[in-house]
Amino acid sequence: MGKYLLKLYVTGKTAKSERAISNLRQICEEELNDQYDMIVIDVLERPQLAEEEKILATPTLIKQLPPPLRRIIGDLSDKEKVLLGLDLQPFSVSSKK
pLDDT tens digits for 21-61? Predict the structure, then answer.
């Protein structure tokens, strides 16, 4: 499995932004081990980057690598939705029958 490149676009130091960063960090640590690079981009500080990526709402997570490119909008509190959006099978799911 290749390394994941994740870009999280947030707007300032708001509660929603901090929650999204915290949720993403927790998911990555639990599911990706050390196989990821996470970049947090504040659209207030770097509006040009947000414009280039056509960011319309924040927080927005973009999975740059591995392909295909994926986008998830929101505070990333729904772990299953995030894993599905990243094309990840959760490692922590036990094999119950």
Answer: 999 999 999 988 889 999 999 999 999 999 999 999 999 99
Topology given in CATH for the domain delimited by 4-85 = Glutaredoxin (3.40.30)
Strand order in the sheet with 4-10: 36-42, 4-10, 60-65, 70-73
Q: How far is CA 3 from CA 15, 57, 91, in A?
A: 29, 26, 16
pTM (two decimals): 0.86
Question: DSSP states of the chain as a string?
Answer: -PPEEEEEEE-TT-HHHHHHHHHHHHHHHHHTTT-EEEEEEETTT-HHHHHHTT--SSSEEEEEESSSPEEEES----HHHHHHHTT---TT-----
